[in-house]
Amino acid sequence: MAKNDLKLLGSWSSPFALRVQIAHDLKGVDYEVIEETLNPKSELLLKSNPVHKKIPVLLHADKPICESAIIVEYIDEVWTHAPSILPQNAYDRGHARFWVAYIDDKWLKALRSILMAEENDEAKEAQFKEAEEAFERMEEVMNKGSEGKAFFGGDTIGFIDIGFGSYLSWIRVMEKMNARKLIDETKHPGLIRWTENFAAHPAVNGLIPDTDKLLEVAKGYKEWARAAAN
Predict the structure, then answer these.
(1) What is the mean pLDDT of residues 91-120?
(2) Where is the GST N-terminal domain (predicted)?
(3) Which of 45-54, 69-78, 179-188 has the lowest mean pLDDT?
(4) What is the Cα–Cα distance from 21 to 32, expressed in whole angstroms?
(5) CATH 3.40.30.10: does it fit domain 3-78?
(6) Cβ–Cβ contacts within 10 Å for residue 214, how many?
(7) Cα-Cα-Cα-Cα dihedral of 86, 136, 170, 82, to 10°?
(8) Is the pLDDT of residue 194 over 60?
């Protein structure tokens, strides 16, 4: 597959675009990244995803596929020459999809609320507890499902690893902004080992955004949202 036949509309700061990049690298597939500024949104993005108007969008021979988890599954189904991202067993596939949907629901909501909350807002503490509960769940999933191996997917990165790992930089940003650990060595030893293995994997290493650079994006987004609300 020629690189110009496969294009990713994304952004370096997007955890969802990161999922698609990791999936491509796991499969060893060449692709072109088209960086979206999002302000304003490009005509290509609006044309490719007219319903949600958001990244990521994968253009495969100019045909758009939208939504990060769906794109990762698409990549897994089309490029079968490399190890599967989703489990072969139907039950295990359903299990993996459940936990990716769970982390998207629990952590993404908490992340947005923590980012926008004022310093002493009581709602902020509630969202921290939501996030901590999510990570406790993922610690359990890691301990039960990995069977002592490096990843949620076992010996190699799988669907849950991509879904959860795409948030790793944003987790670090929230920890740094609030001087508070979310993934703790005492509470989450399994996740700590997993984050080290995940970040060092050849398909991931070099793709995870720099925390300080991403921190500036988070601060800018917070200022923009505050101004828009006034």
Answers:
(1) 89
(2) 4-83
(3) 179-188
(4) 10
(5) yes
(6) 19
(7) -20
(8) yes
Domain residue ranges of the chain, discontinuous segments joined by +: 3-78, 90-219
Asked whether residue 1 carries a pLDDT value surpassing 70, the answer given is no
Q: Classify the C-alpha dihedral 182-184-187-192 as positive or negative.
A: positive
Categorise residue 206: left if φ over 0, alpha if ψ from -120 to 50, beta otherwise: left
What percentage of the chain has pLDDT greater than the value 70? 95
**DSSP calls for 177-192:** HHT--SS-TTT-HHHH
**Amino acid symbol at 53:** K
pTM, two decimal places: 0.93
Given a contact cutoff of 8 angstroms between Cβ atoms, the answer to whether 29 and 80 are in contact is: no
**DSSP sequence for 19-31:** HHHHHHHHHT---
Token digits of residue 189: 């030893």
- Reference 139, options 195, 91, 101, 205; nearest CA is 195
